[in-house]
Every structure is written in C-alpha cells, then in structure tokens.
Amino acid sequence: MNKSTRYAPEVRERAVRMVLEHQGEYASQWAALTSIASKIGCTAETLRKWVRRAETDQGQRSGMTTDDRERLKRLERENRELRRANDILRTASAFFAQAELDRRLK
Q1: How far is the C-alpha of 85 from the C-alpha of 51, rounded, in Å?
Q2: Residue 62, φ and ψ in degrees, nearest 5
Q3: Same domain (yes/no): 89, 56
Q4: Helix axes 9-22, 44-57, angle to 10 degrees
Q5: Alpha-carbon distance 102 to 106, whole Å?
Q6: Domain containing residue 46: CATH number
Q7: What is the pLDDT of residues 41-50, one digit of tens each?
Q8: pLDDT in tens for each of the 106 residues of the chain?
Q9: How far apart are CA 17 and CA 10, in angstroms?
Q10: Which range marks the domain in which residue 70 is found?
Q11: Which of 53, 43, 10 has its CA nearest to residue 35?
Q12: Same domain, yes or no, for 6 and 52?
C-alpha cells in the first residue's frame, strides 16, 4: 500500500534544521537522518530529500532552487497555453480564409 502523507512546512523546516545542527554528533549524515526521521515519523529518504532541497535553496549545493523550479513550471504552463491559443487562431484563420475563397467563386 502506498501511503502518501503531507507534512507541514514547519515540520519540514524543523527536521532539516535538526539534521544540519546535529549531524556532527553522529558518525555520518545518514545516521543523523535515520535517527531524526524516526522521531518525526517520516522515512530517512524523505528527510534526505528535504535536506538536499534546503541545501540547494541556501546555495550550498548546485541545482535549481525551489523558486526557480516554480518559475519554470509557471512559464512552461504559460507557454503551453499560448501554443494552444496560436493553434486555435491558426485554424480559425484558415477556416475563414477558405470561406472567403468559396464566397468569391460564386
């Protein structure tokens, strides 16, 4: 069974902060992740992804930030809508051009 649980942003931020603050107390970052994840009630892999995203957003790791990712999604959505509108206008233009040609022939 696939269990999908959404965590509040405050819980995510607190968990990431705990990992970053206490990872020196553990043998590895993964040990810190597993320990803290069990306390929060999520998987270590989920917490690892949150930490990686936070590191990217803070500029400590290369990659697209959350803001850039959201902006890209918005622009791609807008681009799809504009292409769809252009296709509709192109089809309508061809339809009316053909109607005008048919009318002139009569």
Answers
A1: 40
A2: -75, 155
A3: no
A4: 90
A5: 7
A6: 1.10.10.10
A7: 999 999 999 9
A8: 456 678 899 999 999 999 999 989 999 999 999 999 999 999 999 999 999 999 999 999 999 999 999 999 999 999 999 999 999 999 999 998 888 877 765 5
A9: 10
A10: 65-106
A11: 43
A12: yes
Residue linked to tokens 């590895």 = 28
Alpha helix locations (H) across the chain? 9-22, 29-40, 44-57, 66-105
Check whether residue 33 and residue 81 sit in a common domain: no
Q: Are residues 1 and 48 in the same domain?
A: yes
CA distance 48 to 54: 10
Number of domains in the chain: 2
Say which residue the tokens 């269990």 belong to.
3
Quick one: 51 and 30 in the same domain?
A: yes
Rounded Cα gap, residues 11 and 28, in angstroms: 22
- Please report where in the chains the tokens 């306390």 appear, as a residue: 39
